[in-house]
């Protein structure tokens, strides 16, 4: 199932990344948060002193889903993308 989940997640990521559909800011933040938690991508330095407002919102959105497992975050990401009919 993990391979299937990873494939579905990759497909959902491609859909979300390549859509021309306008997504509301709260939806974009949820996608971002689920993606970060699903991939555990810590490449951004959120603690930089010059943190701007957008990075602050992104960090907050991610921390709100930090309790999710990677698998759960992938599932929620896929479900959200599918619900947007991209």
Automatic annotation (TrEMBL):
Domain spans labelled ACB: 5-86
Superkingdom field: Bacteria
Pfam families named in the record: ACBP (PF00887)
InterPro entries: Acyl-CoA-binding_protein, Acyl-CoA-binding_sf, FERM/acyl-CoA-bd_prot_sf
UniProt entry keywords in alphabetical sequence: Lipid-binding
Database matches in PANTHER family: ACYL-COA BINDING PROTEIN 1, ISOFORM A (PTHR23310:SF62), ACYL-COA-BINDING PROTEIN, ACBP (PTHR23310)
Protein name per UniProt: Acyl-CoA-binding protein
Organism: Paenimyroides aestuarii
